[in-house]
Each structure stands twice: as C-alpha cells, then as structure tokens.
Amino acid sequence: MRFARTGRRRAALAAALTTVALVTAACGGGGEVGNEVRTADGQVFDLSPEQPTRVRTGKVDAIAARVPQTIRDRGTLVVTGSSTTGPPLRFYATDDRTIVGSEVDFAYLVADILGLRLDVRAADWSQNFVKIDSGEVDAFISNVTVTEERKEKYDFATYRLDNIALEIPEDDDWTYTDRKSLAGKRIGVGSGTNQEQLLVEWNESNIAEGLPAIDIAYYQQTTDYYLALSSHRIDGFLGPNPVAVYHSATSGDTKIAATLSGAGEALQAEIAVATKKDNGLIGAIHQALQYAIDNGTYQQVIDRWGLQSEAVPQSRINPPGLPKQQA
C-alpha cells in the first residue's frame, strides 16, 4: 500500500521533528522543517528534493557498450523500488514528491557509468517484481535481498551487506539472545520480506520446541510500525538495519536490541540490484557497481548515508542467497 500524500510527508519528516539536532536549511520561511537532520554522532542526512551533495560520476564507454541495444537506444535506465522503505534507504523528500535516499544514489551511479538518464519509479513491494517480469522497468534497486528462490527468476549484482535489526521501545528492558527470546512476544515485520521469512521460520522452530508462539504483526508503512513501537502495541520490529539505525538515532523512542544477517545464521546475506533473468543487463550493472567501488564514489554514497557497516569490497553476480523455505 502506498502512502497517502499527507502520510508520505509525515513519514519523511517524522524523524526530523524529533531528532537530537535539526539544521534549518533552504526550505522556505519560518516554521517549516529544515532539509537536514544531524544525529548525535554527527551523521548528516539530506532530506531535500534537490540533493545538492548527491555523488555523481562519469560514463565509462567500455561498460556502457555492454548495455542491451534497446536500452541504449532509449537512453534511460528505468529503476523501480519501494516508496515506503524509510530513511536513509528510500523515502520521500521534504517536497513530498521526490524519492531520495541511498538506494536512489546507487541507481544514479549505475546510470551515470552506463551513460543513461535515470528514471526513478516507485511501487508496492510485490509489484516491483511484477514490473521487472513484464519488462516495464529495467532494474529493482530497493534493499532487495538475494534469495535462492528469487534467483530462479531474477539476476542479481550485489552492492551492500544485508543486515537486519530488531528495534524495540527505548524503555523496554528485555534482551535478545536468540530466536527463543521472541517466544510469546508481538513482533512486527514487513510482508513479503526476507525478515518475514526468518521470523516465520523462527516461530516454527520455537513452537516445535514447545515454546509460546511469536505473535507476528504485519506492516506495510513505516509510520504505522513507528507508532506501534512508541505506543508499545508491539514488542519489537524486525526490519532493515539502516532504517532502524536512522529511526532509533533520530526519534529517541526506540533502541536496537540485536543486529543480524538478513539470512539469519545460514550466511551473510547481501543486497543487490535485481533484473529480469538472462535479459543481458546484469553484466553491465555488475561492472558499473565494481567501477564505482574501485573509483571511490561508492564509498562516498556509503558515507553520505551512514552505511559504513554494510559496505562490500566487491560486487558479485548471483551469490549464494537466503535458502528456500522448507516445504
């Protein structure tokens, strides 16, 4: 479900209103929320639609030549993603229209290197895969985890580690040790995500061992689970680590109880660009990502959005992914 317009604006600005320090920037007259948020440790997040400090780079002819001819003729790279992931990954800027964030910046780097103009679009999570299937868009860049099931239909080029976090209310005193710590608790999660897959598996294991079930609550919008956490209607939320880090640092309402691989204990999960399988595009995207890593612009995006703990030394095509769910 997409945000209503007022809901999108509320989501983009909610953390800014409660942050440790608010820096007023070029966002108009008195009373308006500024375009920058600065956390207590000095990390600055640009919420503006203009994104004046966005990292850009130049075309690399040898890599651009690998792009399928139909896309080169069109001159654009059409990239879709979720509009409701939340800062700093993908979110609406202060104009309530422009989608910004680290995932958009990575898409710009790829498009720049391929010599293409970026066309940024948004859809519900599951619909993004449908748009890839139909050929309506070229790539899905929006905190997409590599999974073995997805690899059957899509090709992947990695660009970040996939870490997830358990975010809980700041004044709660319970601790997370392992999945058994969640028995009997109400835990929120996004539907259709790898976090949901992990939570369901943990719940099944807990029940098999005679422990109380995890009460799983599903959310599609960040504002809804933020509200649920602050009002103690859920005991925790399992979601992308960067979003949890941002929200806990700027809201003061929550804290991170645990940080885990997005594949659980199976392996270190990775975030990747997804394309339709065997359409000839993933090789060029992979080389573009590796070029950005090698020339330093990748690290600039990582630093700009506070993603240092998720940086990778190289991009990989179709690495081992989150295992399939047991039948």
Strand order of the largest sheet: 12-11-13-10-14
Could you state the order of secondary-structure elements as H and E? HEEEHHEEEHEHEEEEHEHEHEEHH
User: What is the percentage of strand-forming residues?
Assistant: 15-25%
Q: How many helical stretches?
A: 10
Helix/strand-derived category reads alpha/beta
DSSP helix fraction? 25-40%
Can you tell me about this structure?
- The structure is a single chain.
- The chain is α/β, with parallel strands linked by helices and 327 residues long.
- The protein is 31% helix and 21% strand.
- The strands form five sheets. The chain has a five-stranded mixed sheet, with helices on both faces.
- Helix 1 (5-18) crosses helix 8, helix 4 (102-113) crosses helix 9 (282-295) and helix 4 runs antiparallel to helix 10 (297-304).
- The radius of gyration is 19 Å and the shape is globular.
- Mean pLDDT is 89; it is low at 1-33.
